[in-house]
Amino acid sequence: MNRESIKYRFMAVRFMIWDLHLYLDTHPDDAQAAQLLRQYESQYSELLREYEQKYGPLTAGETGYGDAWLQPAWPWDLTKEGC
């Protein structure tokens, strides 16, 4: 997977985790939903690990230290003219 596809998948999995958390707040005895939440949390960890191995820390608070998360190119650095 390329950088953008990992990010989009990461966002989708993160959304499902939040959605399941909200559902489980009102249905705490739903074992199937709890199992699904654990599966998505596992996918989240795997996608985060894959992204960080290939491209570095995704955010300052994840697994990066100091300013390592700032090292990838900024959007304006990706153009030839810099603007």
Whole-number mean pLDDT: 82
| Number of beta-strand segments | 0
Which outline best applies?
A: elongated
Q: Could you tell me the radius of gyration in angstroms? A: 16 Å
| Largest sheet, strands/sense/barrel | none
Enumerate the spans where pLDDT stays under 50 for 5 or more consecutive residues: none
Distance between the termini: 28 Å
Helix-residue proportion? 55-70%
Into which percentage range does the β-strand content fall?
under 5%
Secondary structure tally, helices: 2
| Helix and strand run | HH
Tally of individual domains: 1
Class from secondary-structure proportions: mainly alpha
Question: Would you write up a description of this structure?
Answer:
The chain has helices spanning 3-26, 31-55. It has 83 residues and is mainly alpha-helical. It has one domain (3-75). The longest helix is centred in the middle third of the chain and has 25 residues, at 31-55. It is elongated.
Layout of helices and strands:
Blueprint: H1 3-26, H2 31-55
Helix pairs in contact: 1-2
List the keywords.
2 helices; 83 residues; mainly alpha; 0% strand
Summarize the structure.
The chain is 59% helix and 0% strand. It has 83 residues and is mostly helical.
